[in-house]
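Hello forum,

I keep getting stuck at the same step: I have a sequence, I want structure tokens, and every attempt I make locally crashes halfway through. Rather than fight my setup again tonight, could one of you with a working pipeline run this one for me? It's a single chain of 205 residues.
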Amino acid sequence: MKELQDGITRLLPHVVKAEIAPESCPTWLRRPGQIECARMWETVAAIYRALTGLVLPEQAPSRERRSLDVLLTYENGQQQILEVDEKQHFTAARALTLECYPAGVKLGFDASRWLARSQALTGREPGGGFGKPKPPLFPGEGGRHRQRAFRDALADLLPPVHDWLPTIRISDTEVTAITAAPDPVSSLRTLLGERGVPVACLASE
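Reply #2:
Ran it on my machine without issues. Output:
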């Protein structure tokens, strides 16, 4: 539901000192292959194999495109991805990807909580267009769930390779709590500080 994303985007100018670019994507994440994945290639290829049983091509198909919820560019030049994860991001496929993350990987969210919710919702994934085949990389029923989980993993694992700050994730339930809070700006500021936005990049209260 885009209204959840929009609810956070509207608050961001009051919370962070940054250029805010909704529905954007860094060039290295649009169609990442072996070159863009660099030292994470083996991990990324293993995640794809676990999801599909297939070998990940060293170059992404030309039709692959994506956008992210928000890109933040701070005044000091640092950059960071912010994603709002709705219920369809918590699936069996997502649990599988999270279990494949290397120890010590830097993340802007609590992976154990994302894993627990994904496991709890396993078998309850939405149908219809949410799970349709997405060839060539994700053919077959449930392809969209696997594609979404794989893309989430790429957005988590690749930023440090390209000297970006760890990707921040906010769940749908957290968005609801923030927007319903007496002071939504303060609530979002606190959460983003906890998730890894540098203190110097947070707007003063």
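Residues 24 and 67 are 5 Å apart (CA to CA). If your local run keeps crashing, start a new thread with the error log.
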